[in-house]
Amino acid sequence: MKKHVLILGAGFGGLELATRLSESYEDVVDVTLLDRDDSFFFGYSKLEVMFGRQSADEVRLPYGDIAKDGVEFRRETVTGIDPATRRVTTDKSSYDPDFLVLALGADYDMAATPGLAEGGHEYYTLAGAERLRDELAAFKGGRVLISVLGQPFKCPPAPFEGAFLMHEHFTREGIRDSVDMTMTFPMQRPVPVTTAVSQLFSGGLAERDIDERPQHLVKSIDPANGEAQLASGETLPFDLFVGIPVHRAPDPLPACGLAPNGWVFVDQTNLRTEHPGVYAIGDVCTGARTVPKAGIFAEDAARVVAEDIAATITGAESPAPYNGWGICYAEFGDGLVSKVEVSFLSASSAEAEPHGIRPEFVAEKAEFGATRRARWFGRT
Ligand SMILES: Cc1cc2nc3c(=O)[nH]c(=O)nc-3n(C[C@H](O)[C@H](O)[C@H](O)COP(=O)(O)OP(=O)(O)OC[C@H]3O[C@@H](n4cnc5c(N)ncnc54)[C@H](O)[C@@H]3O)c2cc1C
Predict the structure, then answer these.
(1) Which of 264, 295, 254, 250 has the alpha carbon at shortest distance from 100?
(2) Ligand 1 centroid – CA 10 distance (Å)
(3) Ligand 1 mutation target, pool 155, 285, 328, 332, most atoms within 8 A of CB
(4) Relative to the CA of 294, which ligand 1 atom is closest?
(5) Ligand 1 pocket: which of 16, 42, 291 to mutate (most atoms within 8 A of CB)
(6) Is the Cβ atom of 365 under 6 angstroms away from ligand 1?
(7) Which domains does the chain have, with CATH numbers?
(8) Is the CB of 216 under 6 A from ligand 1?
C-alpha cells in the first residue's frame, strides 16, 4: 500500500517536492498538497509588479493547473498541527499522514515596526508591490529611505535589487537628480555571504550614489513627520519609506510550539525535525548553520526530502546530505543581472563563486523561472 505524504504549503519547496515525488516515487506515495491561496507567484515577480513590467494577474500561476500523477492539490488553511501524532487540521478537514512536510514559508510582522503599515511601503507582498508601483509613479523627488527591518529576511539580495531598480526608475523618469537615496540594514555589509559577493552589492550602491548605512536598524517610523527612528536613537528623514518587513513563522506554527525560537528547527543533513516522519523545508526552517531564506534553497531541500522519504519507505540508502547549494540571480537595473553560485553547508564556512554582473544573465534568470513554470504547472 502506498504511503501518504502531506505537504503543507505549495510554494517553492512544496511544489518542487510534490513534483519530485510524482516524477520519481509515484509507485510508493500518494501526495496531498495544501495551500491557503489559489495561486503561486515567484518572489521576484514582486519586482515585476512594483515597476509595472507585469500585472499581479500576469505573474500568478493558478494551482488549478497542477496535473501530476499521485498529487492532489487542495485549497485549505492549516489551523493546527500536532507534530507528535502528525495530525493536521485545516479549515475544511483533518489528516493523519505517514509523512508530514512543513513548507509554509515565512509571513510578515508589519506591527513589529510601528508606522510601517500606516505610512510606509513594502514590496515583499504582491499587494504592497502594487501600492508601491502607484506611489513610485506619482513620486516627483525627495528623500527615499529603504530599510531592512530585521533578520532573517527572504532573499538576501532582494532589498538591494529594489534599490538598484528604483535608481533606474528615477533615472528614466528624469528625476534622479532630485532624489536622495539611502539604505539602512542591520548586517555588517550587504549580502554578507563572502567579501567578494558583498563587494558586488556595495559597489552597485556606490556607483548609483545610494548612501549605504550598515548596522543601522530602523525600529519605527513617524510618517506624519517623515522621520525614521533607529535603534541607536538617531533619526533619519524621508519622503518615501520602503521597508523590508520583519519576518515570522506563519500561523499556526507558533501556537503549535513548532517554532520555539522563531522557526522550525531541523537536522540540516536531511531536513528532519525531532518528530519522526515530520520534515521542514524552505523559509520556515532553521538549523545549526545559516542557510538564507530563498526559493532555490527550498527547492534543493525538497530534493533531499523526496529521496529521504523514498529511502525510508523502500529501505534504500539515505541520500547524500543537504548542502544548501543554489544559484542566485539579482537585478542591478539597466539590463544587468548578477549571478552567484553558493553553497552554505558543504564546507566549514559558506562558499560562493560570483560570476559577475552581465546582460546575458537576464535571459538565464528568465529561463530559471520558465523551467519551474513548466515543471510545476505544465506551462510553456
Ligand atoms: C522581492 C523578492 C524577491 C525574491 N527573489 C528570489 C530569487 O530571485 N530567487 C530565490 O530563490 N528566491 C527569491 N525570493 C525568496 C523566495 O520567494 C522564497 O524564499 C521562497 O518562496 C521560499 O519558498 P518556501 O517554499 O519556503 O515558501 P513559500 O514559497 O513562501 O511558500 C509557502 C506557502 O505556504 C502557504 N501557507 C502559509 N501558511 C499557510 C497556512 N496556514 N495554511 C495553508 N497554506 C499556508 C503560503 O500561502 C505559501 O504559498 C524572493 C523573495 C522576495 C520577497
Answers:
(1) 264
(2) 9
(3) 155
(4) 19
(5) 42
(6) no
(7) 3-106+249-321 (3.50.50.60), 113-246 (3.50.50.60)
(8) no
| Mean model confidence pLDDT for the chain | 97
The residue type at 139: F
**223-237 pLDDT tens trace:** 999 999 999 999 999
Q: Give nearest CA residue, ligand 1 atom 41.
A: 78
Could you read off the pLDDT of 94-121 as tens digits, one per residue?
999 999 999 999 999 999 999 999 999 9
Could you tell me the distance, in angstroms and rounded to a whole number, from the CA of residue 104 to the centre of ligand 1? 8
